[in-house]
Amino acid sequence: MDSNHIPNHRARVVGAAVQQRINALGIGEKMQDLPEELWHPSFRYYVKEDPTRQGGPNLRMIRLDPDQPSLTVTGYIFNKFVHPFENRFITPREAARLQGFPDDFEFFGSLTSIQQQIGDAVPIELGEALFSHLLKFVGDIQPEPVALPALGLFSGAGGLELSAHRTYDLQGRHWQTIAGVEIDLDRCTTLRNNFGDSFPILQQDVLQLTAREILEKAQTRKEDIWLVYGGPPCQSFSQAGKQKGVSDSRGNLIFEYLRIVDEIRPRLFLLENVANLKGIEKGKLLHSILEDMQRMGYKVDYRVLNSAHYGNAQKRRRIIFLGTHKSMPKMVYLPEPTHSEHGDLFGMPRFKTVREALAGLPNLQDSSVREILPKDFS
Known about the structure:
Elements: E1 12-13, H1 16-24, H2 41-49, E2 62-63, E3 81-82, H3 92-99, H4 111-120, H5 124-139, E4 147-153, H6 159-165, E5 174-181, H7 185-195, E6 201-202, H8 211-218, E7 227-230, H9 253-264, E8 268-274, H10 284-295, E9 298-306, E10 317-325, H11 354-358, E11 369-370
């Protein structure tokens, strides 16, 4: 297989000190497993000198275990995940494989932007499990084959859009995304290049939009919308971030998502976010979100799901909310796991592994492209 024909599959060449660390890492080993003389100065300070340190040492980098799912893919794979067999960091394409994206799904923008697009996406297998589950629920209410209009908010690079696009049942019933709303130019470029004219991509700030404006541009009536789905930016809730919650303006975007849902009142909604949302402000934020959903007339099932339990080669934990409007005859609940760590006697498959996710990609050890890393990681 020619790596030149696989989009976003280019490896970075790093400085000598970083390469020495990579070369010394064994399978599953992290920075703290290396000889101390190879530690990055900031890591050494954190582990041995930082008076404010709480908890264990920072992950920093890890060589992936080929026979396990990976840890959570983030936008910072360039200094974190080392390839299981080659002495290099994984490529954006390999990160996209771990997220479940097919090789013909190309990401556009700067390398930093592409890495963040991939790291922010919802794993495809998890998305497909959710949309398939919702489709089965609708099938009990709407038995004839039909295209079910759905609206995507905070679309990012299109993980949920792709999952919805690929979900059909045996009767031909499927979700028909009528529009995707995303503010970032690179992500909109990625969406347009992969979805073509399947649905309009609105490059606009949700804060500046009303549901009526979105529906006018999509040429759809709100009464026709079955589902609103999306994942508002979550950095302010993430354990990897500052955990400012709603004090960060990004933390308020979840309520902008709910505002659009409230204006449309679809039969169903799907909201995803970081697992840590549950602990923000000692649960007060979650309580406020659930109160809003109830006020809007929705019965809600929510839980933290692990994407490995749904066939994704990654142990990514996300909180998922499924809302059912009170006008519906029954309530939808989250799907049960389809995979387990070791499988079971009843036919449940075992977790998908890094080895399986990366199978078929070419060796890049001798075809790396030189790019300068930020000083902090050199």
